[in-house]
Amino acid sequence: MQLTAPEKTTPLTATIRTDRRRDADSMAVASFILGLPGLLVGNIFLGPTAIVLATIALWNGTKRQGRAWFGMALGITDLAVLAILVTADGTVSWSI
After folding, report:
1. Mean of the pLDDT values across residues 65-78?
2. What is the C-alpha to C-alpha distance for residues 34 and 86, in angstroms, rounded to an integer?
3. d(CA 27, CA 57)
4. Phi-psi category of 38—alpha, beta or left, where left has phi over 0 and alpha has psi -120 to 50?
5. Half-sphere exposure at residue 18, Cβ-oriented, CA atoms within 13 angstroms
6. What does the alpha-carbon distance between residue 57 and residue 33 come to, in Å, rounded to a whole number?
7. What tens digit of pLDDT does each residue of 8-20 get?
């Protein structure tokens, strides 16, 4: 006699695919979130990180493609802002 319902097993490949997609969705959101403050602060670190996370998320097939593309655009914009600041000021740091 069995008191609990039998466990429903899913194939291992299906579990890996859903985990990869969930990770890709998280990376898409992280690229967007890291790209936003990178416009003002830490753009030398946050810009490339946003670009890499967005690329990995798109490669793994995220459901949040718009957010990943926007995160990538923000990362590229972060690097453009950094380039403008470096050429205007001659240093990588902000001057007040």
Report:
1. 94
2. 21
3. 6
4. alpha
5. 5
6. 14
7. 666 655 555 666 6
Return the number of other C-beta atoms located less than 10 Å from residue 2's C-beta. 5
Give the start-end residues of each E strand in 1-96: none
Give every CB contact of residue 74 below 8 A, 6+ residues apart in sequence: 31, 32, 35, 36, 38, 39, 47, 50
d(CA 39, CA 36): 6
What tokens appear for 27 in the block? Answer: 């990376």
Alpha carbon separation from 59 to 37, 44, 64, 68 (Å, rounded): 24, 24, 12, 10
For the chain, first and last CA: distance in Å? 76
Q: Classify residue 1 by its DSSP letter.
A: -
Q: Name residue 10's amino acid.
A: T
Whether 88 contacts 63, CB under 8 Å: no
pLDDT digits (tens, 9 = 90+) for 13-59: 555 566 667 788 899 999 999 999 998 888 889 999 999 999 999 99
